[in-house]
Amino acid sequence: MILVTGGTGYIGSHVVVELLQAGQDVVVLDNLSNSCPSVIHRIEKITRRGVTFFEGDVCDRGLLTDIFGRHGVSAVIHCAGLKAVSESVRKPLEYYENNVYGTLSLCAAMQAANVKKLVFSSSATVYGEEASTPYVETMPRGVATSPYGTSKGMVEKVLEDLSASDAQWSISILRYFNPVGAHPSGLIGEAPQGIPNNLMPYIAQVAAGSLSELSIYGSDYPTEDGTCVRDYLHVVDLAQGHSKALTHLQHGVHHYNLGTGQGVSVLEMVESFMAATGVKVPYRFAPRREGDLPAFWASANKACQDLGWRAEMSLTDMMIDTWRWQQNATQDTATS
Ligand code: WQD
Fold this sequence. Notes:
By secondary structure, this protein is α/β, with parallel strands linked by helices. It has a domain at 2-181 and 232-260 and 299-312: NAD(P)-binding Rossmann-like Domain (Rossmann fold). It has 11 helices and 13 strands. The strands form 4 sheets. The chain has a 7-stranded parallel beta sheet, with helices on both faces. Strands 7-10 form a two-stranded parallel ribbon. Bound molecules: UDP-4-deoxy-4-formamido-beta-L-arabinopyranose. UDP-4-deoxy-4-formamido-beta-L-arabinopyranose binds at residues 83, 85, 123, 125, 178, 197-199, 202, 214-217, 228, 230, 266, 289, 292. Residues 2-259 form the NAD-dependent epimerase/dehydratase domain. This is UDP-glucose 4-epimerase. Pathway: Carbohydrate metabolism; galactose metabolism. GO terms for molecular function: UDP-glucose 4-epimerase activity.
């Protein structure tokens, strides 16, 4: 039995689908702070398999101990956490409590239950603003630009120290680049509350008419078209990376970039969306957004060599799946 924390969230729900489809049994723990319980039924609809769900928090040691004891958990994929960069600047204590203390609580409960296999959701942001691109796993962590990023780097260090203290631990740290898209079924995807901060859901909401136009932050960066460059990957590819990381867990702690290895600019994203869907996305150029780096992408070689994983889905897939999900979400709101 695999425990997925944050299993009703954007990334976690796709991970649960991949695990179930790979034949694993899954128990989900989520506090529903940024997701809703109907996701479980949607996962069951996609996979035609059952999932055991606990509403609760990773900071609740008693609940964790109970889950480990009752469900024979052999490994944990830890996706639970807060992830909004700008919110983390306003609410650092919440970010450190959820992301750092939450992981300490989880690891302590795992140790007590003798469950020492862990896959952890980290972020490319841990490379910091000084790193040269492409980011390679052998580079040291840098100074993160937000409490969110710092919390991910702190947890990485905790896991490294834990592994150094006890050779029985097998830990994979997955550093996500920019996950986008939704499940091709249209049943699960990202459901940001309020106005989205991230590019892809913003584009989708402009296309749907819920927002009037996209502001492209910065047109004078030292990139080919002057807009920022990122490594966008399809969330289903990302989820498969977790499944591969789980089956290839080895003793010690191992860091993997999960990205395509290709940089794509903001303007290319907008154009690709319009070409794939035929829907116009009005945009205007706006000043740079504070804290944005001009360009970064992954070296994706290590995950390929060690895990046999590489991102397979195209930019067009990312756009079409985002749009299908957005249209379903708009319909749901219109009929509910
Ligand atoms: C991408 C590009 C913006 C919105 C963040 C976190 C990272 C990870 C993913 C994880 C940038 C531009 C955006 C808009 C725009 N978080 N943009 N107009 O900042 O690369 O990464 O999200 O959990 O840790 O740092 O992603 O999608 O916000 O922005 O022009 O309305 O799109 O300036 O260049 P980012 P993003």
